[in-house]
Amino acid sequence: MSPTPIEVTVDVNGVSLFTRTLGAGPSVTVLHGGPGAHHDYLLPQFDALAAGRRLRYYDQRGGGRSSVDRRTPVAWSDHVADLDALLAGNGDCPATLLGYSWGGLLAILYAIQHPDRVSRLALVSPAPVTAAGRRVFEERFTARSRDPDLLAARDALRSSGLRDRDPDAYRQRLFELSVAPYFADPARARDLTPFRVNGRTQTAVWTSLGDYDLQDALGRLKVPALVLHGRHDPIPIETARETAGLLGAPLRIMEHSGHVPYIEDFDAFRDTLDGFLPRVP
User: Fold this and answer.
1) Is the pLDDT of residue 116 over 90?
2) CATH topology of domain 6-133+195-274
3) CA-based angle 185:190:191, to the nearest 5?
4) Confidence band (pLDDT; 50, 70, 90) for 3?
5) ω into 236 cis (within 30 of 0)
C-alpha cells in the first residue's frame, strides 16, 4: 500500500502555502515549474522517488492552492524568501533541492543567495540561466506551436462540437494541444496531469528577473549537482550543457524526451535521480 501524503497549509512571509509531504528519510524539496503553476502536474510520476526519502512539495505563492491577492508581490526574490522560510521551518538546511523547469532556476537562485544552505541540486529540464537563452526557448516553442499538424488538430477540435457535447473532454483536449509542443511525441501530452498557470505571477517573476545572466554567480557555486535534460526539449540543450558545465555537474540527456522526461523517459528519469538523491540504505 502506498503511503498517504500529508497535506498542510503553512504560513510564511505573510502568505499561506499549500504543502504536500510523502515518504520518510532524508528530505528532498521539490520545486515545480511555471512560474505561477502548481505541483500537481508532477504527479504521480515524481512520487516514485519517495522510496527511502521524504519528498516535500509545495505550491509556490501565486499559483495553485497558494493563491494571493493582486497586492501581494510575487517577484523571484519573494519565491526565494518563501523557500528559505519553508526549509528553515522544516529543519531541512542544508537542503537537497529538486527543481523542474522554472523550479530548476528557482533552485539556482536560492543556491546563489544562500550557498551555505544547499547540500545538493538536482535540476530537471531547467530553465536557462540567461535571459538570452530564455528568448531562444520562446522562439522555439512558438515555432512548434505553429506546426501544421497541431494547427489542424486545433481547427478540428473547434469544429467538432465537443465543447457543447462534453465540456470536460473538450477542455482536456484543449489542454493537451496547448502543451504538445513541449513533447518529443506530442501524443504523450495526454499523460500529463492538467494544470493552470497564473498569468500575473508568471509575468511578475520574469519581469522581476529582467535581462538576467547568472553565469558568473553559478560558476562560483560549489555544490554537488546533477542536470537532466531531454534531447528534444524546446529549452535548448545547449543551455543545459552550460548550466551543467558551470556547476561542474554531469549532464544526463534523456534521448527520447522533450521537456517532460518524467513522462517520456520515466525509467531513465527515476533511475538517474534515485542514484543521486539522498536516501536511507
Assistant:
1) yes
2) Rossmann fold (3.40.50)
3) 90
4) confident
5) no
